[in-house]
Amino acid sequence: MPYAKIDDSLTLYYQTKGEGLPIVFIHPFVMAHNVFMHQEPLAEEYRTIFFDMAGHGNSTKGDVPLTIHLLAEHLRKLLDRIGIDQVVVCGYSHGGLVAQEFALNYPERTIAVILSGGYSELNNFSPKFFIKSVMYLSKFRMVPVAAKLQAKLNKYYPGDDKKIYSLARKSDPQRSYEFCRTGLDYVSTHSLHRLKMPILLVYGSLEKPMHHYRIPFQRAAPQTQVVFIEGGDHQVPPRSFRKFNAVVDGFLRPIAADYYADDSERLR
Questions:
Q1: 89 - beta bridge partners?
Q2: Could you give the residue ranges of the DSSP H alpha helices within 118-240?
Q3: Which tens digits make up the pLDDT trace of 119-145?
């Protein structure tokens, strides 16, 4: 299994598949890279990177408490280690905060941003209640309970939940708590105008409490595209994956054409 040493205390598990335009997938709390198992077919057209964040899945937990900024730094170092200069960042739910932070800090390295169920800050009850519930379970070292809940919510096929749970249960309680906590406090709303790259927001049509989170992006970054997946809930990547993958592919194809053209120009 491939690992990248980030510092003396932290090693991140990752896997890459395919060739072409690089896209890195960023998972939510108390989950791991395999929540994106149904995005693996995108490797037929793109270079896909899946990884486990600090204290999650097969990665070590490190010695430093997590913040969204630190998680974005871990991602930068991971990309450095595997030799990727520019990348499309695709964050799912809380993972979208890391994607935004990376894009804000390293716009020259960010080809595009894709957020599924994304938000620039949390300001309504239902997502906050869920996150605080996971924080409570993590604080009292009941991560397996949170992992089973995440696995159940994110399964599509019979057996998906067992695969997701097998890695989610490895989540470190302290790092899980910190990831939840720092996300509750995170606000990028007033910085969104700095995002000049293409942006795609994807929401399930049924996750109505999340739909208003598109508005700050649309106001601050008019290049933002928004797609609602009919019949989808918050768990779009694992549960509405065919539609999600098609939307991602449609969004990336013109970007990939420019990317390959730029590559050809550099090689001349």
A1: 24, 113
A2: 125-139, 143-153, 160-168, 173-185, 214-220, 236-239
A3: 999 999 999 999 999 999 999 999 999
161 and 152 Cβ atoms separated by less than 8 Å:
yes
Which residue stretches of the chain are H helix?
68-81, 95-105, 125-139, 143-153, 160-168, 173-185, 214-220, 236-239, 241-267
Tell me how far apart the alpha carbons of residues 16 and 126 are, in angstroms, rounded to a whole number: 34
Q: What is the pTM of this model?
A: 0.97
Q: Beta strand 22-26 with 3-7: parallel, antiparallel or unpaired?
A: unpaired
How far is the C-alpha of 25 from the C-alpha of 39, rounded, in Å? 9
Q: Residue 59 is encoded by which pair of tokens?
A: 């990665």
- Predicted confidence at residue 266, as pLDDT, reads 58
Residue 27's nearest CA partner among 74, 62, 65, 64 is 74
Look-up of token digits 């871990």: 74
Task: Please tell me the distance from the alpha carbon of residue 178 to that of residue 144, in angstroms, as a whole number.
Answer: 17
State the CB neighbour count (10 A cutoff) for residue 125: 9
Distance CA 42, CA 165 (A): 23
CA dihedral 21, 107, 115, 194 (to 10 degrees): -150
